[in-house]
Amino acid sequence: MINNDFEKINRFILSNDNRYGIFIIIIVSASIFLDVWDLTSLSFVLTFFKSYFSSASGFLIGISVASANIGAIAGSFLSPYMTESLGRRRMLLINMVIFIISAIVISISNNIIYVIIFRIIMGFSIGNDVVTGFTYIYEYTSEKQRSSLYPLWAYAFSGVALLAILTVYILYYILPHYYLWRSVFIIAALFALVILTLRYKLLETPLWLYKHGRNDQLEYVLENVYKKHIEIKSRFYYKPNFYDMIRMFKNNEYLMLFTLSLNGIVGFIGWGFSFYVTYMLFELHVYSFESILAIDALIYGFGLLGAILSRFLFKMYGSYRLSVTSSFIAAFCIMLLLLAFFGYINLIAVIPLTILIIFFNYLGPMAYNAVLNNNIDPMYRSQANGWNYMFNKIVEAISGLSAGIIIIEIGDVYNTLMLFIIIMIFSVMALISGRYLKSDFQSSESL
C-alpha cells in the first residue's frame, strides 16, 4: 500500500530536523498536559470534591472520576478516522474548542450528573487530541529529534503533577475549600484557550497532505519547514475506513501486544493507585493536607527523576530490558506495600514504597508511546495510536472506577491486592511478547 513517494517523504522527514520542532512538540503535546492535569489535580482535591458532593455514593464518585476516561475511549476510537478524514491540524483545533466548553461547564456545575456528562465530553476531546497529537508529532520530527520524545509521557506526568501540587497548595490558602475542585477546571480551560490560539500557526503534516493528493500544499510545507525541495511525481488518494484499525495489526501484533502490556501497567498504576495516593494518605489520619501535598511533591519528584534517567538508560539497555525490568520491580514494591497494609511491615514504609512504585513506572513502562511510534508502520500510525490510547483509557476507566469503589467502600488493602495481581499479569505479558521484538527495538530505535 505504501508507494515509493510515500517512503521518500517519510525518509526525508526522518533524516531532516524540523526547524519548528520544539514549538510543535510543546504546542501539540498540550493534550498530554491536559490529560495529566485532569488526573493529578483532581486527585489532589478529591477529598474536597467528595465532600462537596457528600450525598453521592462511592459509585457516583467513582463514575465521576472515570467519566473522562470513558469519553476518551470514544475519542481515541474515532480519532484515526476523524484525523485521517479531516486532517491533523483541523482536529487539533476542534478538540481544544470542545475541551474549553466542557471544562467551563464542569467548573460551574452543582449537580454531579452534569459533572459526569461533561467530563465524558471533555474526555472525548482529550482522547481524540492525544491520538492526533502523537501522530502529528511523529510525522514531523526526525530520528534525532525523537530522542527527546522517548520520555515525553513521563516528563508530562511528573512535571504537571508537580505543577498541580504547587497550584493546589497556593489555592488551598486563597480559596474556600469547596472552590478548589472547580478551580482546577477553570485553569485547564484557560490553558486550553492559550493552546488553541497558538495552534492556529501549525501547518498540516506532509504525510497527510500526500495521502490526500494535496501535492501543492505538500511542497509549500516542505519548503517552509525544511527550506528544501523534493520532487514528488505521483499523486496518492487515501480513503480512510474503520477496517484500517484491524488491518494495522498485520505484521504488528507483537509490537502492539508489548506496547499494550506496558500501557496496562501504566494505566493501572496511574488511575488505580497514584490517583488515590492523596486520598489514601488522608484517610490514614496521620498527615495534614499540607504534609500530604509535600509527600506528593516528593513522590512525583522521583517520578521526574525516573523520566530523566529513562532517556539515558534506554540507550544503554534498550526498550525491552528497561521496560520489563522496571515493571517487575514496581510489582515487587506493590507486593511490599500490600504487606504493609496487612501489618507485616511498618506503615512508615508506605511512603518510600509509593515513591519506588512511581519511580520505576516512570523509568520503564511509561515510554510505551515512544516504543510504539518509533517502530510502527507510518501508514498506520494514527490507527496504532488510536488502539494504544483507547486501551489506555479502557484500563484507566476500569481501574479508576474499581479503585474508587474498593477504596471508599472496602479499603486500601483489597485495592492493592488487585493492583499487584494485575501488574504481574501485564509484566509477564510484556516479558513474553517483547522477546520477539528485542532485536528490533535495539536496531530500529536509532535515537
Automatic annotation (TrEMBL):
One of its GO terms (cellular component) is plasma membrane. It is found in: Membrane. PROSITE patterns: MFS, SUGAR_TRANSPORT_2. InterPro entries: MFS (IPR011701), MFS_dom (IPR020846), MFS_trans_sf (IPR036259), Sugar_transporter_CS (IPR005829). Residues 24-442 form the Major facilitator superfamily (MFS) profile domain. This is Predicted arabinose efflux permease, MFS family. The chain crosses the membrane at residues 20-37, 57-79, 91-110, 116-138, 150-172, 178-198, 254-279, 291-314, 326-345, 351-372, 393-411, 417-437. The lineage of its organism: Archaea, Methanobacteriati, Thermoplasmatota, Thermoplasmata, Thermoplasmatales. Keywords: Membrane, Transmembrane, Transmembrane helix. GO terms for molecular function: carboxylic acid transmembrane transporter activity. The keyword Repeat does not apply.
